[in-house]
From TrEMBL:
Domain of life: Eukaryota
Entry-linked Gene3D superfamilies: 1.10.287.90, Cupredoxins - blue copper proteins
Gene field: COII
Any Gene Ontology biological process: ATP synthesis coupled electron transport
Protein name: Cytochrome c oxidase subunit 2
Amino acid sequence: LISFHDHTLMIILMILTVVAYMMTTLALNKNINRFVLEGQMIEVAWTIVPAIILIFIAMPSLRLLYLMDEIHEPTLTLKVVGHQWYWSYEYSDFIKVEFDSYMTPQDSEDKSTFRLLDTDNHTVLPMNSFIRIIVTAADVLHSWTVPSLGVKTDATPGRLNQCSFLMNRPGLFYGQCSEICGANHSFMPIVVESVNTNTFINWVSSVS
């Protein structure tokens, strides 16, 4: 994702440079050409060149979409169920490890929390492990989204969607419901807590 971002950014930078140069040249140019409206070659060029640029963007984009859809023998499977207005989590590889995650009230006494982004129960997952997320919904459309992990999966009633990711560092990753599922869809925060394997095992033991 980062490489594709840099690749696209360089293309955009080149386009902006050329357009800015042409606009500056036109603004400062005092020459007048009465045949300027007739230019078959330039019209062909500015039709073909953007098409070629789009191909250079589309090919790595399609490759990235294909790679992100692959599931690499997941170490852990997490089932996520969207409700109005909270998320439910089920750790399918363990017995009776499930909980609901609600947004922390705004009048909470803990001033270190992020407003409208923190939850009462964090989703604890081990880092340096392939995690498979299975997403569905119990009522209306939702979308389980954590931008910093490059994950955005729609939660559709009666359908299971899946995605995978790998976290290579510990910390907290924040997200929200990204589907307009109702008036309070922005009040469905997601907090993924990345921890080492030993901490995760101790957490699972305490929860179950």
